[in-house]
Design brief:
With 179 residues, the chain is mainly alpha-helical. Helix 2 crosses helix 5 and helix 7 packs across helix 8. The longest helix is centred in the last third of the chain and has 21 residues. It is globular. The N and C termini lie close together (10 Å).
């Protein structure tokens, strides 16, 4: 037997939630965002909102002429965008959850045959590809699969199937780094 790639829980930490309880919580959160905000869940739009707001300071004429970027700065304030507030809430909730469960620590999860630098470089590359993919798909996995899937949007269901098929296919190639 080879080394395990499972990240060990810190001593004294609480166990993970049941996936059924966590999934139910996500479903109730999704329902709440539709009822309260009029939008489903998402994340990638916050990063596009940040990029458009930053570019508006550096090149305001370019942003105003851009059919893609101008809608992100129409209301004029980065801090009033519902998706920015949502992502900040997710970050705060993740921090508080990890702290409450005794799992708050700096770590780099990696397999035994992959070095720390390689893992960070691959995570960075994966983040760039995921961000670009979310813009091409007009939404991230949470926006497409959770929000789009919950309202039976055909494109979101096609995206979900392609996403999981791609994930399983990629796992076949990169899985050995985790063994």
């Amino acid at each position: 037997m080879g080394k395990s790639c499972v990240i060990e829980a810190p001593p004294g930490s609480r166990p993970y939630w049941s996936p059924y309880v966590a999934g139910s919580g996500i479903g109730l959160t999704l329902l709440g965002t539709y009822l309260i905000m009029g939008h489903g869940l998402g994340a990638s739009g916050a990063f596009t909102q940040a990029a458009a707001s930053f570019l508006r300071v550096l090149a305001p004429e370019h942003v105003q002429r851009s059919e893609y970027l101008s809608p992100f700065v129409e209301d004029g304030s980065f801090w009033t965008s519902w998706i920015v507030i949502e992502v900040l809430g997710v970050m705060a909730g993740a921090f508080l959850s990890a702290w409450a469960a005794g799992r708050l620590q700096w770590q780099v999860g990696k397999g035994p045959s992959l070095g720390r630098g390689s893992r960070i470089a691959l995570a960075f590359l994966g983040g760039i590809l995921t961000g670009a993919g979310s813009r091409f798909a007009q939404g991230c996995t949470s926006g497409q699969i959770l929000s789009g899937g919950s309202v039976f949007a055909l494109g979101s269901w096609v995206f979900a199937l392609a996403f999981f098929a791609g994930g399983f296919g990629a796992a076949w190639f990169v899985g050995r780094a985790w063994r």
